[in-house]
Amino acid sequence: METAQIIKKALLFSGLEDEYLAEVVEIAVRRPFAKGETLFSEGEKAEGFYLLASGAIKLCKISPDGREKVLHMVHPVETFAEAAFFGDGRYPAEARGVEKGEVFFFSRGAFMGLLERNPRFSVNLIASLSLLLRKFARQIEELSFADAPSRLASYLLELASRKSTSFQGKTYLELDMRKGELASRLGTVSETLSRTFKKLKDEGVIELDGNKVTILNMEKLKMVAGK
């Protein structure tokens, strides 16, 4: 897919006229990454931000004892690390490839020039950051008040809304991270996650085959999630 076609799908660049979109394309630097590769580390000086063109990226924090906490999974046409424009100018988390792909990198200096020339970029940047803030607010709420089944059900519903197929009343999807990473994302441990999957399976809500999930009863899954 052409660079411009990918970029204009991102919320940050939505609604831009062709002449301004061309300016964005001009400053975008394509960077491939491998599975497991670290794009930047927590505390590293933020030189700019990224747009994921293909593959998958996880944003995570590493504790002093080496444990990993997954904060967010980045999917194609999402931007990330916009925090480069605020605060102390350092990345607040680590970005690592979950599967190989490619990003577009936008340097801080080049993008600040666009902001100065076109206020629309500023409006879109605020909208993009607001959406990310809402996502983290929901995550904090779930981790604080919801039990493990509710958290898992909410995750499956969100994943189904993004990428799934339906046939004869069933919805088919594939987990976008390993189960250990999912347990971390949901604020629990692998053993609890396995028991929660089994509970939903025993209740006839889902079927599970490795990383492939079949939602058998969407309404019941929504009830478990508290939707």
Could you write a compact summary of the structure shown?
The chain is of the alpha+beta class. It is built from 8 helices and 10 strands.
Kindly describe this structure:
The radius of gyration is 19 Å and the shape is globular. The strands form two sheets. Strands 1, 2, 3, 4, 5 and 6 form a six-stranded antiparallel sheet that branches. It has a four-stranded antiparallel sheet with strand order 7-8-10-9. The two termini are 36 Å apart. α3 packs across α4 and α5 crosses α8. Helix content is 42%, strand content 27%. By secondary structure, the protein is of the alpha+beta class. It folds into two domains: 141 residues, Sandwich (Jelly Rolls), CATH 2.60.120; 79 residues, Orthogonal Bundle (Arc Repressor Mutant, subunit A), CATH 1.10.10. It contains eight helices and ten strands.
* Straight-line distance between termini: 36 Å
* DSSP summary: helix tally: 8
User: What integer is the average pLDDT?
Assistant: 85
The secondary structure category is alpha+beta
Helix content: 40-55%
Number of strands: 10
Written as H for each helix and E for each strand, in order along the chain, the element string is: HHEEEEEEHHHEEHHEEH
User: Which segments are poorly predicted (pLDDT under 50) over 5 or more consecutive residues?
Assistant: none
Going by CATH, the architecture of the largest domain would be Sandwich
Characterize the biggest β-sheet: 6 strands, antiparallel
Question: Any idea of the CATH class of the largest domain?
Answer: Mainly Beta
CATH topology of the largest domain: Jelly Rolls
Spatial extent as radius of gyration: 19 Å
Task: Based on Cα principal axes, name the global outline.
Answer: globular
Total separate domains: 2
In what range is the share of β-strand residues?
25-35%
The CATH superfamily of the largest domain turns out to be: Jelly Rolls
